[in-house]
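for the writeup, i need someone to sanity check this before i put it in the appendix. the sequnce is what the collaborator sent (i think, or maybe the updated version? ugh). structure was predicted straight from it, no edits. if anything looks off just tell me and ill rerun, i have time this weekend
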Amino acid sequence: MIRTDKAITFIHEIERQLRTIYEDPTLCRQYAWWILEEITHHKKEDLLADHIIQLSHQHQAILNQWLDKLINKKMPLQYLIGAVPFNNIEILVEPPILIPRPETEEWTIRLIKQLKQLKNQELTILDIGSGSGCIALAIAHALPKATIYATDIATNAIALTQKNALHNGISNIKCIKADIYDGLPLNLKFDLILSNPPYISPNEWEQLEESVTRWEDKAALVANKEGLAIIEAIIKQACYFMKYNSELEEKKLPNVVLEIGYKQADAITTLMKQAGFSTIKIEKDLEEKDRVVSGRVVPCGQYKHATTTS
């Protein structure tokens, strides 16, 4: 049976059900529109312009299935939709690979603006723990002369990054299965090392929402040593994989950029100082929480073997 009504009436009904799991009314409204857009295959402006819309029996069945998965199974909406916008590209997402977060997009956009200032953009960049490939692909898209190496320990993450590269028509990216630095080609050096690594402590994991703990990969989020184990390994070994870039130095731009937990800035600053980093900077996200640490490290000798712990 076809149901005919105003778009806003459907939105209010979806919102009402979403409020059983989401406290933020703005988020409920945003999600309600996303759901209606996806189910009807029409954009918000078109749905509003039409005033009256029709939902077929099939549309209503899909809507009920989605609401059941959202409310009862705690499935993230992004997995239902299957894609999220990230900077100027679209990232396909699938469980359990980590869903790109707005705070990650924020600092990636800032970094791209900095890198676009460079006269020589033929950079070699490493993205450790690439997951869906969102950071690596956003940079590769923005800097077509650069070569981005996207690494991950998970085979399904590597496959998704490759799928996203194809989806966005991006060719200047190389996907490698690696455990931090172990698995990289010998003698490969980078102008810039990036990572959104696991930085949540095991105790913090227990406090996260069910939509995260049920669906997203724990290994992509959680690290030992109060969430610092992977970050420490990246920092300690970075100099072995760095090459000298005079323009980055002249412009006082970092050659290592890491996303961090909001309570970790002091501990990570100490780790970076111990590893010989300079120009260490902490940046906040839009919620005024410490979110990114960056710095410069001088290239050093030959890498032997990373002593990493997960």
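The mean pLDDT is 95. The chain has two domains: 3-73, 97-297.
thx in advance!!
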